[in-house]
Design goal:
- The strands form 3 sheets. An 8-stranded mixed β-sheet has the order 7-11-12-17-16-15-14-13. Strands 2-3-4-6-5 form a 5-stranded mixed β-barrel. A 3-stranded antiparallel β-sheet has the order 8-10-9, with no helix packed on it.
- The chain contains 12 helices and 17 strands.
- The model has no long low-confidence stretch (mean pLDDT 95).
- The relative contact order is 0.11.
- The radius of gyration is 27 Å and the shape is elongated.
- A hairpin with a 4-residue loop joins strand 2 and strand 3.
- 28% of the residues lie in helices and 24% in strands.
- It has 468 residues and is α+β, with helices and mostly antiparallel strands.
- The structure holds adenosine-5'-triphosphate and manganese (II) ion.
- Adenosine-5'-triphosphate binds next to strand 12, strand 16, strand 17 and helix 12.
Length: 468
């Protein structure tokens, strides 16, 4: 009955001082209940809208105090009507004095999320419930904020959000890393005269895969709309069980016409700084929590990065630093090698102690679409490296010259017939253009200090594991 005059608020809003004096309706889950000796129970209520809970005071005078309130366990869902008051307690502006409490759903003591610290490994086994924990609620609100900031950053700069396909026939990163998309019956596949599986009879009439990057299609839009970005799921069947690789992850890929490598670096550095300053500004409770529980240097590191310039270093300079470092690496450093994670981390964590943009990599270790420099030996690639993670962004200025592009495709044994549409961008009004890919989960790892990438995505897909 009081519901009609009560204002429906989220816990986040009821925690603000300007809610004081209002009669409100709150709905959420009980985090804890504790009973005082003087005829009161204190309920910590959370509805996911904010990191902090609101304290609900439930007095013995409630008509269902003995039958309902005294049985409220961690995990029960309830509805509360009450008056918001100034809280005498430290660390909270308000509390709610309940005039009505109603139970939606009970949670027996077998509820797996009891009031204690659970390991991240255990929480991974109950990924369908972990969004109710402090850690994962905070991770999800950070993911939401960072997504929003990324869209804002690009929209403010005139980039259009475009949607590139998830099913693709081009295998730019090599078929070994791709998931095949097929409707062929594996127990009875059609075969050609050589006895091979005949994919011309498959759903699309040819072999198809889940995309490893929207870049090539993104380039077609950049060469029409000027500046674009994608933000979508990406799939890689790389059989590497690391703390930085997922089989399904989200990637942000801007691509801009008339951008050269320098412009690309500016764009990447600006994007990361924007993300870091936005999480500090808009998610202060979450960031304080991560700083306390996961990495006590976190906010300091982010603030430092926001205020300083990223190091810009050529691959060749990096190799010199690594060779003279006196450090013994597992993989020996020579000009021409693909830098390993240990090398990248040495540069960004130990040598410079800040983000590093490495550029001008050897032609032989980078994909065909990267622009060849005048020296003929290096390409205009750039990787952004950050402490603890290593590579967070990979990008390049793209090859604009048709002939060079074709030579590079031959070098890498690619079937040119599959790329005639991509070649057309160089045939008709070719322009310098550049872009990069930012791994969304890697950036979430970086801002939360969470070590394992499986714990920054709701439902991780990794080799041998596809639960929920
Ligand atoms: P790495 O060497 O770390 O495997 P990569 O060189 O394969 O990365 P790119 O192909 O350049 O990466 O992809 C662009 C970005 O996407 C990377 O900088 C990284 O942030 C992210 N990324 C790449 N592979 C994965 C993965 N398997 N899981 C999560 N993020 C990834
Ligand atoms: Mn990779």
């Amino acid at each position: 009955m009081t519901e009609s005059i009560a204002e429906r608020l989220s816990v986040a809003d009821a925690r603000k001082a300007d809610a004081i004096g209002k009669t409100v309706l709150l709905k959420g889950w009980v985090r804890t209940r504790r009973d005082s000796k003087v005829g009161f129970s204190f309920i910590e209520l959370n509805d996911g809208s904010s990191f902090g809970n609101i304290q609900v005071l439930a007095s013995k005078s409630l008509n269902n105090y003995d039958s309902v309130v005294k049985n409220l366990n961690t995990g029960c869902s309830i509805r509360v009507v009450g008056l918001v008051k100034e809280s005498p307690g430290a660390g909270q502006a308000t509390e709610v004095e309940a005039t009505e409490i109603e139970l939606y759903g009970a949670a027996p003591s077998s509820y797996p999320l009891q009031k204690k610290r659970h390991s991240l490994e255990f929480l991974r086994t109950i990924a369908h419930l972990r969004s109710r924990t402090n850690t994962f609620g905070a991770v999800e609100r950070i993911r939401n904020r960072v997504s929003f900031s990324i869209h804002q950053y690009f929209q403010e700069r005139g980039f259009f959000y475009v949607h590139t396909p998830l099913i693709t026939a081009s295998d730019c990163e090599g078929a070994g890393q791709m998931f095949r998309v097929s409707t062929i019956d594996p127990s009875n596949p059609p075969r050609n005269e050589q006895g091979e599986i005949d994919y011309s009879q498959d759903f699309f009439g040819k072999p198809t895969y889940l995309t490893v990057s929207g870049q090539l299609e993104g380039e077609t839009f950049a060469c029409g709309l000027g500046k674009i970005y994608t933000f979508g799921p990406t799939f890689r069947a790389e059989n590497s069980n690391t703390t930085r690789h997922l089989a399904e992850f989200w990637m942000i890929e801007p691509e801009a016409a008339f951008y050269e490598l320098e412009d690309n670096m500016e764009l990447a550095e600006g994007l990361l700084k924007r993300i870091f300053s936005d999480v500090l500004e808009f998610c202060p409770e979450e960031m304080a929590f991560f700083n306390k529980q996961f990495d006590t240097t976190l906010t300091e590191t982010l603030q430092h990065i926001i205020q300083s310039d990223f190091v810009r270093l050529t691959y060749t300079e990096a190799v010199d630093i690594l060779k003279t470092s006196g450090n013994s690496f597992e993989y020996k450093v020579e000009w021409g090698i693909d830098l390993q994670s240990e090398h990248e981390r040495y540069l960004t964590e130990e040598h410079f102690k800040k983000p590093v943009i490495l550029y001008n990599y050897p032609r032989s270790i980078k994909p065909f679409y990267m622009r060849v420099n005048e020296d003929g030996k290096t390409v205009r690639a750039m990787d952004v490296l950050v402490p603890k993670i290593g590579e967070i962004i990979g990008g390049s200025e793209r090859e604009t010259d048709l002939e060079t592009l074709q030579i590079r495709m031959d070098e890498q044994g690619l079937e040119k017939a599959n790329y005639s549409w991509y070649e057309d961008l160089r045939r008709y009004g070719t322009v310098p253009h550049s872009g990069f890919g930012l791994g969304f989960e890697r950036v979430i790892q970086f801002v939360t200090g969470i070590a394992n990438i499986r714990d920054v995505i709701p439902f991780p897909r990794t080799p041998g594991s596809c639960e929920f």
